[in-house]
Amino acid sequence: MYKVDLIENETILKSKELKDYESAFSCLNGLVKYLGENRKIIIYEKKLNKWVKFGEWKLQ
Questions:
Q1: What residue numbers bound the domain in which 19 lies?
Q2: What is the per-residue pLDDT across 41-57, written as a single tens digit (0 to 9) for each?
Q3: Residue 58 near residue 42 (C-beta atoms within 8 A)
Q4: For the chain, what is the domain count?
């Protein structure tokens, strides 16, 4: 299980839970166009009933 969050200034703008890795990265690719100053995308993976940060994307 994966969760993808679009975050701006520590506020979640969009969040989606997905069942598999491919769906999570497909969602990530769809959200990339929303990246901007003070925004980032974080993917979490569920391990032992806890969300663990899997990756983070932001503009440099």
A1: 2-58
A2: 999 999 999 999 999 99
A3: no
A4: 1
What are the two backbone dihedrals, phi and then psi, of residue 27, each rounded to the nearest 5 degrees? -65, -45
Place of tokens 């491919």: 22
Name the percent of the chain in helix, strand, coil, to the closest 5: 25, 55, 20
Half-sphere exposure of 59 (CA within 13 A, CB side): 12
SS (H, E, C) 4-33: EEEEECCEEEEEEEECCHHHHHHHHHHHHH
Q: Quick one: tokens of 39?
A: 């925004």
Task: Specify the pTM.
Answer: 0.89
Place of tokens 């679009």: 6
